[in-house]
Design goal:
With 171 residues, the protein is α+β, with helices and mostly antiparallel strands. 36% of the residues lie in helices and 21% in strands. The longest helix is centred in the first third of the chain and has 31 residues.
Length: 171
Amino acid sequence: MQKQNGFTLIELVVVIIILGILAVTAAPKFINLQSDARASALQGVKGAIQGANGLVFAKAALAGDERASVITGTDVNIGTEAAPINVKTLYGYLLATGTDFNTAIDASFAPVATPGNADWVYTATVGTANTPGTMVISQVGAPNDSKTCQLTYTEATATTTPTYVIVDTGC
């Protein structure tokens, strides 16, 4: 007589049950990947803005413009003398405008009303003598109805550096 090799029905059922339990416990971790990616992208753009602001401030300090408090901003050349690239600064840091962000940062920012092919959309408020300007940035396609997936950039003042506030509870 030949001996048959293989799995019994009970062994197969036990393996299927174990795989089902593993799938139920592991699936929620993978379902939320898009939200995690959006939150990480916000952290990335925050880092890019902070890095650009550090370099812009250094150039402003070299030019002696780190204390300039003109509300419309002071032009600082972040390029070379042969190929100047000017951005407006307030106390040596970037103004909260899409134009200056697009010039200083390797990302594309556009107003919410006309996103075009931009990666990031923003709503900006112009600063006054008493109130710094702000720029609320969110990723194109991110849920922003409840304002829970965004970065708020607030311009520098005479006594503070720019602030960066991330809200990522609803990404």
